[in-house]
Each structure stands twice: as structure tokens, then as C-alpha cells.
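Appendix B. Chain record.
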Amino acid sequence: MNLLQHRVLNGWPFFGLVASLTFAAMVAGYVLIGIATPEAAVNMIRLSVQLASPWVYLAFVATPMTQLFPGNLSKWLLRNRRYLGLSFAAGFGWQAVFIGVLLALHNPYYWDEMHNDVDLFLRMASYIFLLAMTVTSFFPVRRRMRAEHWRWLQLVGIWYFWAAIWVSYAPMALSIDAKTIDVVYTTLGLLALMLRVGAYLKSPVSSLPQGSATL
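C-alpha cells predicted for this chain:
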């Protein structure tokens, strides 16, 4: 049997595995990094984004991979696109938790060092998209929506999160303090974009209706 067809690597078992590993990684991060200083809390925020990033990239390329490189991997991506999106939500949601910790324990640092109006607007937009896409990924809610509204929400949302994640890494990857993970995620984000654009150019008419990725 193809490994990608294993029950644990598909559907809700897959999501449960990813969510459990994400939780374990965040607990380990809390033990090793802590939240005693504002810098430590910021590192926990960054850890949550690092854990979430691969899943949004995979959800972003699920349909393009099917169009460009049909095979077992692309079938697995498309079959589990919903759960890839939910896995992203399971990781990204921790960002909100530790932003709350930062506000509660190191409030002056947040307002003096981290806050600006643009970042606040983008952060609020992220959580609105995250909540909307997560809720509408469940079929009872989805059935109550018009099909075109659901598609546009998912399409705009997945592009938004691809851009938000990529932009969070690209400036750091180009800085003198760049870390390996910044370069890796910046490169993977560009590759994901190339796949998406390539699939659109190959099939511009059919790519829009199926270009969404369910969270």
C-alpha cells in the first residue's frame, strides 16, 4: 500500500497527529524558552508561525500540483487540502495565545516596540480570515453559503495567508541576521507561488473555481 494512503496520514487522523505534534512543540518551546521576558514571548510567537507555515504552503499548492504533476503526492495533497488548512490554523492560532501573553505580562514592550497601526490591522485581518475559513470548512456551515461566496472566501484567504507568511520571512532572509529557516521558508514560498502561477497559465479558466484551499 502507498504510504500516503495510510489512515493516519489522511483526514481527521492526520489533523489530530499534526495538532498533537504542534501542541507538544509549543509545550517544549515554553519549557525551553519561557515567557519571563518580552523577547522570550516574541520567540514563542515566532515558533507558532514556524510550525504553521509548511501547512499553508502545502494547502496553497494542492490544486496546482494536481494540474502540473498528477500522481500520488498531488492526489494526497488535494484529498487532504482541508486538513492541511486546519493544521495551519492549529499552529497559527498559538500566535494569538502568545500575543495575549505578551500583552498581559509585557504590555509596555508590546506598545513601545512591536505595535504599529498597519501591523494591528493585518493581525486583525489574519484572525478574521482564520476564523471565517476554519468555520466554513465544516460542511454544515458551508452548505448554508452560496457556492461562489465560499470559493471566493477560500481563494482570497489562502492567497492572503500565503502572502502574510512569505512577507514575514522574506525581509529577514535578506538581512545580515538571516537564519536558515528564514531562507528556507522564503524559498519554499517562492516555489509555491511559481507552481500556482504555472498552473494558472496552463489552465486559466479552470484554476479559479478550484483554486481555493479549505481551512
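Further analysis of this model is presented in Appendix C.
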